[in-house]
Every structure is written in C-alpha cells, then in structure tokens.
C-alpha cells in the first residue's frame, strides 16, 4: 500500500526490463510511423463505452468504460447556497467606489463553487494522486470562460451557477474510479466528467430577480447546465459550436519526435514528456481553444538503466568495442547507445510542445474528434 | 398528517412506497460488469444501487499476509466506499471513510471470511471493493448480495449463496407483544425512510451443500443464519416474527440471484 501511495507522478510503473523499455521506445520513436503495442495510430483513442443519466439521485451522471476494463462513474450534485460577500466588498459597496467590483463577485461567480473529489481504490482521498488529478480537472473547468456576451453562459460555468446576487448553486462533482488505475486515469476521468456535466440539469427557476430562489418542481422542464442545441434548429453542427462546452483534458506524450495521444501504461513508461492539455470549444469562433497545459512527471525517470556492452564487466572482451557507439538522440540531445535503455532525464523541446498543442487543437484534429464523439453520446 | 409508516400503515396496510408488508423491492442484478477484475457485479434493490468488484485470490501484499492466519487460508479484505452523491444530500466525509461504511466493511469481512472456503487459498488475499452508488436503505443487505454475486463471478468456492435481507416492525415495538391484540405487522426489505423510523434487523442466510447420506432426504435444504445485525431497540417478543420474515426474504432473494447467475452463464 505504501509504495502504491507514493506513486503520485504517473501511476504505477509497470515492471519492464531495460531491454523491454528500449524496445518500446525504439518502436514508438520510429520517425513518422510509431508502432504502438496495441496497434493504434498515434492519435487513436482506446475504444470505450459510455452512458449517461445512470443515477436517478443526481443532477447528472455518466459512466465510461475503456476496453481494458477500467471504468469510472461521475455523479454531479447541485445545492443552492447563500452567496457570502466578504466584508471587504460590502464596505467598498457602501462607499460607492467599488460597486463594479462587488458586482463582479456576485455576477461572475466564484471558482470555489465547483467542488471536485476523486475516489480511486487503494488511495485515500487526500493522497497526492486524487488531489492532483481533481485540481487539474477543476481548474480548467472553472477557468473556461465564455466570451459571448449574449449567451446565458457569460462567465462560463462560474457565471452559470449564479442565481441572483444573494444565491448561487454549488456544484459537487464526485468521480469514482471503479477499478485499479491500470494506466494514468486522467483521460478516463476527464471524459466521464465531461459527459456527466453535459447531462447535468438544474431545476427551472420560478422566482425572478433578487427574490429568494424558488424552483419549478417538474423535473421534465429542468434546464441543462450547459445549454444544448435544440433539435429544431436546422444546421446542427453550426448550432452546436455556438454553445459553451465543458473542457476535456487530454493526455499526450512525446516519444522522440512522435506525439502520441491516450497512452496506455507501457507507453507512458517510456515517454520523454507527459502533458495534460485542457481544451474546450471557443463559443465565438466555434473552433477549439487551449485552456491549460500541465506537465506530468514522466515515470520513465524512475526506471532502471540498461548497461551497454562496452561498460558491462561480464561482457569484457566478448564484443568488439566498435559495435556499440553512442549516437546523439535528436529528441533529447543526449548521447545514447541504440538499443540500450537510458532513463529520460526530463525536459522537452519547445517545438515538440508546440506540435502537441497543434495536433490537439487543429481543425479536424484529435480534440475536435473527441468533443464530437462525446456530443454524440445520447443525453436523454 | 405526517407521512410516516407508523401512522399511515395501520390505516391502509400499505407502506409509503405502496408495498404490502411481505413484498420486496424490485431487484435487478448483473454479473461480470467489470472485465478488469476477477469478478464483479451490479445489484440494485429499489433505489439502492451497489457495484462490487473482487480481486484475487492473489498473493497478498508483503507484511500483511505474513501476519495472523495468513498461512491457514486466504484473507478477505473489504473496502466500502459510499459515494458522495449516493444520498439525497451530498455528504462530505472527512479522511475518506466514515463510521457507516467502515461498519459495513467490518461486517462484510467477518461474514465472508468465515463463509468462503478460504482454506483452499493459503497465503493469498481476496480483496472486495464495494461502491455504493445510491443509498436508499438496506445498505448492508444489498452489499452482502452484491458481494455474493461478485464472488460467484470470480469463481471462489463457497458452500452456498449468502443472501441477505432486512426486516422491521411497523411500529416502535418497544412493549411486550400481546398475542390477542396484535397490531404490528412485520415488514420486509425496508427503504431509507422506514429504516430511519422503525426497528430494523438485517438477516443473512446461507444454505449448506447437501453432503453424503443427507443428500436425498433434505428437500427443503438446510438453512443457516450467517449474519444478524440490529442497531435499534426492540422488545424481544417480536424478534421471532422479524427473523422469520427476514429469512423468508433471504430465500426469495436467493432464488432471484440464482436466476441471475444461471441466466448469465447462458449468454
């Protein structure tokens, strides 16, 4: 248990020998045509099954299962809460100087109104991995701010939670990972949270203005937290893109010059760099925009190095010294003997990061594909 | 008039959710829901929904298995997680576990530790993970049923299905029972509002496998009570009725679960 808890960086490292790691690295870093252990293309995701609204007791819920058996369930619950304005803003309001400041707190919403907790079997919920994951997903969720002034979603999710100046919704997002994390669970959890938020409904408000909130008790007229395109609007794809959508966090790794999406555990183990990229749809232009990038500590640092024959005492004299000559690895700028594993020392080139972001964001790219796919899941 | 069982039940003989005293809630169950585990199940009794997954028997973690009794047989580990969204109001739990879930975990562990044929797997650990997705009464009973299904799915030998059910009385039942003027009815399979108001008994029973010469002559099947838990106060004269109703509920549930297990093997 204790060594499992320490694995905060990128989940457990599989027990692979230096020779296996080197083999994996070589096949994944083949220029232009990486060969993945499961035969996927670099941008291909693992097949998954998804369903929404599985828990009648929540405002919104979703379940996603990857083909390797890892499953996650997300339940979203909303509660009405009184907005507490800090003394500071109240005082400023009295003075009549900072009226706009006070308005921004009550109208724009507050990041702490969204709470997220992640349960991973074998981990306490204050362990490093769940806390890090939930904060990583929450910050992009809260940070997503719509730019469209006319829409309901001004101020993004935070703004949507405002009922009036004195009341707001508090959103609890609870993520349950149902199986041991076989790979770094971020993509699974992020996709499930996205789906759950898409299916989340809040009861229709009956009171107006600054009255104490009073809701319609008919659940059938409840409104989606993220407004959905009405079926009557003809051009579906254009209507779709005009709505603010919850962000999706994608896990991207680089191996050599190659960029690989949705890595499995073995692929993460040899990655040069692991990046968590949060993207969402830009409400105005309809294309994708970047919300945040986080680097995740690549577990390849912790692996055992292989020993080249030239340095191996037991092989002394058995091999001609000319056979293994150190070659400069263009991706890392380090001297390496081909076929001999060297733990990555971290650090990634700027051009590689730029390429990662570009692949995720470009039109018809991975991000668009993922968002389209999730939108296609029937939310009833 | 307040809507609770002790006032409305004597008038209508119907419970809050419209059931009669001896009716179970709708039970739906599925096994092999999670391919990443050795065995898994989903079980819902009314609005109580539970997912359970079993890992093992596998080599225990170092340090723990070498402890007490590790060599004699497998050790059963149970981890219960009541999801934050399971109740009506979202509950924040401090430190990852609360009293309710650790009590359920302890009961499950002691029930299955003695129920399973653990001696077949020395030096190993069977770990059970229970997630409560939605809680509406009879949590322990539903968890026991879900665990039984998952353990069957994992192929861990046991003498018979361990099934469980709750029974209660339709009033506070704190005074001795009057046999001539019996006002209170026993209730089967309590939901959360009933559970909070009335005395509840959780019964778990198992059948023993007919062995040897008893093989033929016991058509009824020998029933053993394996789990019995009660938190509330009750006059002992009601105990027998409640126990009888609970055991009867366990039998009904056993038939349902057997149907689930047999049905899934055909598919």
TrEMBL record, chain A:
The keyword Cytoplasm applies. GO terms for biological process: exonucleolytic trimming to generate mature 3'-end of 5.8S rRNA from tricistronic rRNA transcript (SSU-rRNA, 5.8S rRNA, LSU-rRNA); nuclear mRNA surveillance; nuclear polyadenylation-dependent rRNA catabolic process; rRNA catabolic process; TRAMP-dependent tRNA surveillance pathway; U1 snRNA 3'-end processing; U4 snRNA 3'-end processing; U5 snRNA 3'-end processing. Gene3D superfamilies: GHMP Kinase, N-terminal domain. One of its GO terms (cellular component) is nuclear exosome (RNase complex). InterPro entries: Exosome_comp_Rrp42_subfam, PNPase/RNase_PH_dom_sf, Ribosomal_Su5_D2-typ_SF. The keyword Cytoplasm applies. Its main location: cytoplasm. Coiled coil: none annotated. GO terms for molecular function: mRNA 3'-UTR AU-rich region binding. It is found in: Cytoplasm; Nucleus, Nucleolus. Belongs to the RNase PH family. PANTHER family: EXOSOME COMPLEX COMPONENT RRP42, EXOSOME COMPLEX EXONUCLEASE RIBOSOMAL RNA PROCESSING PROTEIN. This is Ribosomal RNA-processing protein 42. The lineage of its organism: Eukaryota, Fungi, Dikarya, Ascomycota, Pezizomycotina.
From TrEMBL, chain B:
GO terms for molecular function: RNA binding. Gene3D superfamilies: GHMP Kinase, N-terminal domain. Pfam families: RNase_PH. Residues 23-157 form the Exoribonuclease phosphorolytic domain. GO terms for cellular component: cytoplasmic exosome (RNase complex); nuclear exosome (RNase complex); nucleolus. InterPro entries: ExoRNase_PH_dom1, ExoRNase_PH_dom2_sf, PNPase/RNase_PH_dom_sf, Ribosomal_Su5_D2-typ_SF, RNase_PH. GO terms for biological process: nuclear mRNA surveillance; poly(A)-dependent snoRNA 3'-end processing; rRNA catabolic process; U4 snRNA 3'-end processing. Belongs to the RNase PH family. PANTHER family: EXOSOME COMPLEX COMPONENT, EXOSOME COMPLEX COMPONENT RRP41. This is Exoribonuclease phosphorolytic domain-containing protein. The lineage of its organism: Eukaryota, Fungi, Dikarya, Ascomycota, Pezizomycotina.
